[in-house]
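Entry 14. Structure prediction run on the chain below.
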Amino acid sequence: TLKTLPLRRLREGIAFAMRTGIVLDRNLFSIIDENAHALQQHDIKILAKILQLSITARLQVESKEETNGNLIAVKNFGATIGQAVEELMSPMLVPGQCLAIGMMAELELAYQLGHVKSAMVGRVRRCLKKFRLPTSVPVDIEPSDLLETLLPAFETKDEEDVKEIPQSVNVVMITGLGKILEPNPIVEINASQLQQIVFSQQDAVAITPSKIHGKLRVHGSKSFSNRILLLAALGKGVCRIKGLQMSDSTEIMIVALKKLGVHLTWTADMETLIVTGCGGKLKLPESELYLGSASTATRFLTTAANLIQEKGEVAITGDERSIASTIDGLVDALNENGCKIEYMKKKGSLPLKLKVGGGTLKGGEIRLSASLTSQFVSSVMLSAPLAKKEVKLIIENEKPIVSKQYITITKKCMEKFGIEVKSPSPGTFIIPNGGYTNPENLSVEGDATAACYHLAMAAVTGGTVTIENIGSSSTQMEAYFCKLLEKMGCEVKLDENSTTLSGPPPPKHKVGMAGASTQEEGKKVDDEKGERRELCAISGNIDMGDLGDVFMTLASVAAIARGTTTIVNIANQRYKDSNRLEVMIEQLRAAGVICDTFESGIKIQGNPMLRYKASQRTITVLNPHHDSRVAMSFAVLATAIPGLAIAHKASVEATYPAFWKDMQKLNGDIGAVLDKETYEIPRNEASIWLVGMRGVGKSTLGKLVSQSLGKRFLDLDKLFTIKFGIEIRAFVQKYSWRAFRKRELELFKEVVQKHPRNCVVACGAGLIETPEAISILQKLSVVVQINRHIDDVALYLNKDGARPALLRDGKYAWDSKAIWKRRKVLYHAASNYEFPIYKGDTSWIKIQEDLENFLRRITGMHPASTAAVTPEEIEQISKITTIKLVTGTFFLSLTFPNLNQAVPLMSNLVAGNSAIELRVDLWESWDPDFIGQQITLFRRHCCLPIVYTIRTKGQCGKFPNDEKKLFRLYELGIRLGCEYIDMEHHWSRSERNKIMRHRRHSKIIASAHFKNSNGGSEADLENTFQLCAHGGRADVVKVVTTAYCLEDAVRLVHVAKNVRLPGNPPKIILAMGAVGQISRVFNEFLTPVTHALMPGVAAPGQLSIAEIMTARRMLSIRAPMKRGLYLIGRGVSQSLTPLILNTAMEYLHLEHTAKVWETADGKLDQIFKLFESKDFGGAVVSSPFKTEILPLVAQMSQSARMIGAINAVAVLEDGTMFGHNTDWISFHQKLSSYRQRKKRDGRVALVLGSGGSARAAVYALLLNRFSKKCIIVCDPTNPERAKTVSKHFECKEMQMSALKSLRNVSVVISTFRKFGPLTSEILLPLPVIQQCPLVIDTRYLPLHTKLEEQAAVYGCNTLRGLDLLIIQNIETLKLLVGGEHWAMVDSAAPIINRAVRHKFYKTYVEKKQ
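Output returned:
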């Protein structure tokens, strides 16, 4: 039925209904668009209406002739590209999702051909997104693959002669909503047009510098759009509004006003909105007002809804972002004025319930605070003329009104509708009683922020741009951005409604002349003419506190202006859609700009000659981090500097959907990044190429890790057999090795071209015999040599007779060692990484895990053990800012000459550290193979990042002062995947620069050591820090001195604290010697430590973690506030969670304490009070609160949202709560290890229980690729709740009595609590247990549960509740301490695990014995 239809199926069906609406029935599309939220809540009334309209529309066209254009169109619109996408992406994408992609592609084509307006394309795109339907071709599809599917090539009989037939395809052409091209909607699209639309789906856009010039009307301001919409709705008469900003916020306001009885219709061209005002008589809506994330609409309508005359109740709600926003200041003021507004859940936040009738807004004196937002003031002002009497609005603020300019915009809008607001004194507004009169026609003032990008492009290219709908009359702060450009040398002309800006001509570039000379000559010419001919920086600090959204645009202009630009008062920009300061610094540097950031701003050293930099073979792809305003600012930069492309081009849709099209109108040269060799694919997306000798495990390991990494596996040897229809051995014997190498190279080049992304490719062992193949491999991002000891390889190959003989000196031979000797240097030349396998190691499961972790490390993918399911969630959890439970990080300096000595002690040694320093200079050998074997051994026993250090004799170490050998071993450290390379700063600049350029994923610690010196004066020390910073290229700066008195150490600490370094890298400071130990107490980032089990200290004065933490607490230096961690639940007094967390605190040397917090009555207000207590540091949530606690958290992780339950709560820096679910992680880890031994296909999983743990178990099973139809939920204690869980995940629910009919049961997970009335008696039916499934019981008391005993009797593998509980709590602890300290928790996890089990044994086993 429609009521129980799974949400994904519903959305798929909506896509087909939407197609009918776009082609045949505009009203049908509007109903879908305006009721998106209700439809996804399974509103039967609206679903039935859509179904009826869809069927009626189809029947009407089908009743006519078969050749009817409408019938053809409704069947084929979106199908051409959609079906091609389905062919490539099935079953990952279902037909409805592919149709959505096809419809958007064909609408984009209609727009390019001039048949539809951008407003219509944008509206359809936003509607699809409301239903979470895709709107562009997935990045997994290469444009060339999609083109090949649409326009297939063919091969002649001669396999050397491959040709393509020029073809065309047919698509349906739309001319408007509900309109098709007449008389024939089918249009033939040639290959060139198709290529353009396919490549427009690429994630990146390339920009070629060109002079930007022309005239443009930008879209309407969002601030004006929302205000004018509400005023026209409340006014009397008809108002035709042009220029509205077509954004989510505007559309939400339109839909809400329609629900309130206002008549709004778009003209056919979507250019004008016709509003018939209600004269202030809003109607009672039939359903809740769902306002999504539109905070402006939410605040404006919270007041306006009180004007409804009909008695009843109105519910106002929104998405999580809106719910997290505060609204209590407005609600309190309205309630004091006679309104009746209640909070339905959390005080101060949505959802709200309004009791309306007769107009509850009385008027008179209203007192309001605007300390948080000016929108509260605007909300009251807009509705005030329709109150029962004149309103006197008094702003009660201790601080200045936030964003005061928006109140001015509100007043200006009200004047257009006949109401003049008077302000007799600051903070007081008199709004007359009466009503609004709608003007017949009204144009929305253009968006000044949008205009800034185009004006800036004119500035940097020497062009002239006129913005026709923003002028001197604008009240928007951003309208004054042009004045900044004028100060930089641009010519600006303003009239009341338009702005024209002309940029100075770019400086002349003379070939063969040095940049400095060219600039100097240009400067002289300027001085002679008495005018400035170039862009020049504005001297002094530029305060952009009120222009934060456009500081990135000015920064892009400053990058090519002569002089240094300093922008200040923009610290808040670190917390916008991205950390804008860090993103700008990072990406500007990638473009060749010298720049730096500080706490409240950014400094840019402009270089006009960047526009003439030599063209590069590789395009630099700037990453805006999905921030629309950053992306558009980078477009400004790319119009002046050659060789730039911008990733995530679709991010502009958030604020300016038509940006790229408008840029093209002004002569912007925009295109696709067509040449794959010039497109720098992100390392985490690039295909991974494995090279190495036969028998090293390339194919075996590659296939296994590709599955874990979610990539496709390709074996070149197997592809060869498939392509040429003959085994390699037979081919070599029939033809020759030379013929084989030729064909192998052809195949290799074809795979490189077709599969540059998301593959793991095992190359043939002898591919590197071909020089051209080596040349190609050297250009690829990730090429890994699998290096197995040649003795192990020879032993394996001597047992394998299925491989072709190896050719050497014209004879066939099996001398693999001779082959290795010759090829060793070739493998090294062809690869940029090396994965050594420890000699004699045949544990392939362990080797596979090591290789997977290695590949994740070097490609920037997150560790397999991380507590998140998607990159987006990992990003979210790792970057949330929690309160400080831990301060500072540490690394242990391992001083063993051979790491075999450290292996038995490893878990104790590394606990509490965030990295481990491997002192290679102290090892017994510096042979590269020995170093590789040692690092492999370390990786097997420790997950922490490596600080790869080779300390020379001149810098307090043992390695010879031989620069050539030293830097060769630095390169080896990078090649072996070490996370940090400690590079001594005093060696030659050329060698240091070489390491900097080729560091790949590794971070460089630039270090200076003063063996017998205190480092000199403060000025000397500051100079050392600056030298180590390498102009902002060093990732970490490390300065070590020798302290002869306490003042030496204090001076070092003082300089480190106050010195400002380019790039603001973290610093490591140490003063060696006993009196210098205080410096280790003050150091915050990666403080080197020792351990009692070490053979010796790495440096004089080194301390342990325990000693440093004790000193910090005694001296109150960087010591975190002592907090309480709580287990919240009912009947949890015997829980082991406090024991686990307190054990963790002990081994991490922290003073926080964990305790049980029980509530008998289960009232959430008691938990809320606990959350607000000053010492609250976080919580683990147990039954029955895992679902009930959801309203108390301001934010939650993606997994918690999908599961619908929370078991971990962290405190954010702003005092709000963040909810996460770690239950599923424990299930996921255990199932992941088990699945290697048992196939998943067709296997059934049974989940017993229906609480939060059961939800997490189902979620984990889905992640382990169990089919939804094969997951069974059963709860004899609460069948109704089991049905709810099964419906939530679209799986099955069964009664206990029906379980005996199950077949192919692979996994059983029991999630019942220990203290339930029936749980101790529940056993599996005999037909189920006899299938020997894996049995997981979440209970850990009693020691052996009845279910475990039953499983043991029938020979089933079991996993105990204690195993799961430890994993859950370790992952919860990682959430509480924040992403910076995840490694520290991981390092201590093994020893915490061991200690907890020992205490458990002492408490619950030994005592009973």
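The first strand starts at residue 154 and ends at 155.
Filed with the rest of this week's runs.
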